[in-house]
Amino acid sequence: MRETLAKLLIKRGDFDVCGVSPFVPDISRSIGASAADVLILDSVTACLSDGALMLETFSQDPDIKIVLIDMDNDPEVFLDSVRAGVVGYFLKDASAAEVISGIQAVVNGWAICPPQLSLTLFRAFSRQRAAVQNSRTKLELGLTRRQQQLIPLIAQGLTNKQIAAQLNLSEGTIKNHIHGILRKVGASDRLQVIDMTRLYSASR
Q1: What's the rounded Cα separation, in Å, for the pair 152 and 180?
Q2: pLDDT tens-digit profile of 110-149?
Q3: Using an 8 Å Cβ cutoff, are 54 and 46 in contact?
Q4: What 3-state DSSP class applies to 108?
Q5: What structural domains does the chain harbor?
Q6: E strands along the chain, which residues?
Q7: Rg over CA atoms, the chain
Q8: Would the pTM of this model clear 0.85, i.e. be above it?
Q9: What are phi and psi of 28, to 5 degrees?
């Protein structure tokens, strides 16, 4: 598939193929050195590196655009790829013409995915939004002003003693407030509060 796709791209005359290679260790360095605009992967290659290849490629060249061809037609692979930064996505039954025109669209700044996966993407976004909203509600509703004041300090990883010193309160008072926060937001420990805070902050 690599060789065939490379030949088709070269035949068009408006693409320069910088390299063709199977997955090998440190391939991301060669990709970065090539100064390519687009990297074309298949899902098997991406899985061989457990996603590290895409991360390493972006670290070498943050502007590169990655196109992935899914050999398993797996919606979870699709969502993981989008989260990793893939901007072009094709199923294994896509025609060569569809892949090539999609690559051109990606070069021109578009994002491409099969229509049948659009609903998967929308639903995933909706679930993420619901999770963010749930965290926001738990963090904002039902907490006293003092408890809301403690949230960012907890998120900084400060101990009860450090928070008490910063607010000129007793350590026991801080402990009681934190117990109240855990109960109201439904968290079992401070780490869950920190996770909820980070999710909330990322959504603002």
Answers
A1: 15
A2: 999 998 898 888 888 777 665 555 555 555 556 788 888 8
A3: yes
A4: coil
A5: 2-116 (3.40.50.2300), 130-203 (1.10.10.10)
A6: 38-42, 65-70, 88-91
A7: 24
A8: no
A9: -60, -30
